[in-house]
Amino acid sequence: MKVASAILAILIVLGLWSSAFVVREGQSAIVLQFGRIERTNDQPGLHFKWPFLQQVMRFDARIQTLDAQPERYFTLEKKSVKVDFYVKWRIAKNSTYYQATAGDITQARQRLAPIVKDALRFEVNARPLDELISGGRKDITKRVRQLADASTRKSLGIEVVDVRIKQIDLPSEVSDSVYKRMRAERTKLANELRSTGKEAGEKIRANADRQRQVLIADANRDAAKVRGEGDATAAQIYAKTYSQDPQFYNFYRSLQAYRHAFANGKGVLVLKSDSAFMRFFDNEDGGKR
Around Cβ 265, how many Cβ atoms within 10 Å? Predict the structure, then answer.
């Protein structure tokens, strides 16, 4: 009796142990019974199933990356380009994903890659090379993501989160023409910038010259005004001095004339002996003897 009770207890413990399962963070799960899906989308946490009759299949619910091999496509003008891209995706519907891939992520990637490549081929074929190079990548990847996502949700249970183009390689003849065009555009832009800078420089120099002329004219005007005022003041002083002592004033003015005439010490004057210029050499009061 004790043995039977022990065996029963062990069976109960094993049943409870096999009936409980944990779905970790970043995972989702489905429950299978004889290969048939019984329950889907079990979220992280503790769950239960029928022991021995049901099995659990866990999936990685995080965003996955598909880094595909570069593919060669033809543009609208039938020019060949090689496009290198990658895809971000995750499981959107567990039941569809399991039925399409049996839960194998490698098989999921193998089936996802052709869908994205077909969508990318459709978009590249519909666009000229200039648009593809100059700025059409964002629009292309947006359209490719929409087309691929609509297809993979139905057939694979996969959500295409993002599609990005890493690099577009051009044939050598196309690359040369593109580089020449880019060089011509940059040269044109540089010439425009130089022309604009030269024009701005001419305006600045012209404005500076005008301001310089105005400043010089104002300075000359102020200087002339000051000189005029000084001459007027000097004339008043001279007149006042002359009125106080005419004889001393004549003597002082003659000394200034002598200083100016003999400033360099080499001057030679030929004058008559009775010249008024030499009157103070003969008589201290400036009169004739």
Answer: 5
